[in-house]
Amino acid sequence: MSACLNSGWSFSAPVLMTLLVGLGVAVLARWVRHQPQFAGSSAFTLMHLAILWWLGAAALEMSVHQQSCKMFWAGMAWPAILGVPTFWSVFLWQYVNSIRSPLRPLTITALMAMPVVFWLLALSNPWHLLFYGAASAPISSAPNAPIAYQHASLFYLAAAYGYPFMIFCMGITLRAAALSSGLHRRHYLVFLVLTTIPWGANISYVAFDWTLFGFDPTPFSFALTIAGFGWLISGLRLFDLLPVARHLLLDALIDPVLVIDPQRRVIEANPAALRMANLKKDWHGRALSQWPYIGEMLDGISQRTVLEESPQLLSVAARKQHFEVRVQTISRTTREGPVILGQMLYLRDITEFQRSQQQLAEALALSKQQLATISDLHETLQHQALRDPLTGLYNRRYLDDFFARELARAQRDNAAIALAMVDLDHFKLLNDTHGHGVGDDALKGVAAFLLGELRNTDAAFRIGGEEFLLMLPRTQPTEALAKLTRLCRQFAAQPLETRAGPMQLTMSIGVAHCPSQASDLDGLMQQADRQLYLAKGSGRNRVMAMPELIDAAVSARPLPH
Known about the structure:
The protein is of the alpha+beta class. The chain folds into 3 domains: 2-234, Rhodopsin 7-helix transmembrane proteins (Rhopdopsin 7-helix transmembrane proteins, Up-down Bundle), CATH 1.20.1070; 244-384, PAS domain (Beta-Lactamase, 2-Layer Sandwich); 396-555, Reverse transcriptase/Diguanylate cyclase domain (Alpha-Beta Plaits, 2-Layer Sandwich). It contains 20 helices and 15 strands. The protein has helices spanning 2-5, 13-33, 41-63, 67-76, 78-96, 105-111, 113-123, 125-128, 153-179, 182-208, 218-234, 241-248, 271-277, 295-302, 357-386, 396-413, 427-434, 436-453, 477-493, 521-537; strands at residues 137-138, 147-148, 257-260, 266-269, 312-316, 321-334, 337-349, 417-424, 459-462, 467-473, 496-498, 501-503, 507-514, 542-544, 554-555. A 6-stranded mixed β-sheet has the order 9-10-8-13-14-15, with helices on both faces. A 5-stranded antiparallel β-sheet has the order 4-3-7-6-5. A hairpin with a 4-residue loop joins strand 5 (312-316) and strand 6 (321-334). Helix 4 packs antiparallel against helix 7 (113-123) and helix 10 runs antiparallel to helix 11 (218-234). Residues 240-249 and 551-561 have low confidence and may be disordered.
């Protein structure tokens, strides 16, 4: 590698194009990394990191002069060449199934195992010539001429490994598009196009020796994928508005409902709204002010923020109709603060109720009832989204937001945060012996015990079957160890009431601290998990922490008399 880094270099238009595409990929990957609510965001980010690797290797291959160095950088691209379809298929699977949990390091390692194997085979090509044959040579005698590669058996084997992932991507997007409608279908169809473009470029290169600037055209095709994702994000609101709006928009309502984005474009409309405007197609993305009959008046109403608390009367003279209009802001809380995603406009037809005072009163009462139903539904969905249904503890989804707030507070006040991973000992044996019903009773008892022992400022989360996480803000290492040791001993001494009678369980706890061990949530959880593993391996029913932070690990077991 050092020899190739020190060899002759040339800067050309293809290299510049490759670098510009890489810049676009980097910007997109960084932006997506900060969208934790987006399903499949971790796989999406990893895919774009693989694209960056691929582009970097391609740029270096195009820049160096020596044939051996060009072939070296061609080999360096292989973990990314196979990593891109791998993580693209994982992303699409998670997106289609609304899976928001990040990929675990072990999963990433397993997914990259075969790409790394082929990478090593490609780098060792000078010794076996099974990736690129001996006939591989520059296409001309000109300086820095591209290499015309003789593809050997291992090359085609690697291609055969990667192509099934692309077939899977096309299959899952076609199925999702067939089962969806509206804006979701547009998303899946664009995903299908973005899958087809680089795959088509690669097949053209592998099967028909088609090149661009004398090189594999696949890296250059990523420019089109970047443009496609840009349109998805800016035009079809891929990352924010639609998932939130779906929770609020009820297609079954008999009254018109519209959802607009911050640019005042109509993103969603129920059938009643489309019938009122006499629209069947070409309505999505149209400015609210351009909607027939009601657009200009609704646009003016929606800009008055006071209407979030007070309904307004909308009269449509052309149709001799009267509507009560309510405007609800759609927002999302992020680490930087609330972000306005758009507005929901709810129009209740009160034409008939206008004829008498009594009917008007009935209409207003019914309107309040329906709005209360929507609000209750929203609160219920929000509660379900943040709470574990069995124990009532917070779930993994809420953990990121809670930690972000506490981290900001700790950094401001120069305070510490303790994080504890808690695992019930021999819980599988309890389930196998007494059944899952008794296991569920035990889990509820554990949740009640934890909530009873924690401070109001602490928080408990259920993150797995019998796995819990405790967040202790403003808690120093020694204080945390003492508190958790006491909690561990109390739990071991306190039977849990179950349908099979009192059950006595124990727990093992691993502790980590911020900022001394890590300043991010993933790092803290990894550190705490290591200590939990040590606690399990040391006999269970104990608390373990880093010896550098705590003078000694403390067992929760009573000392012998």
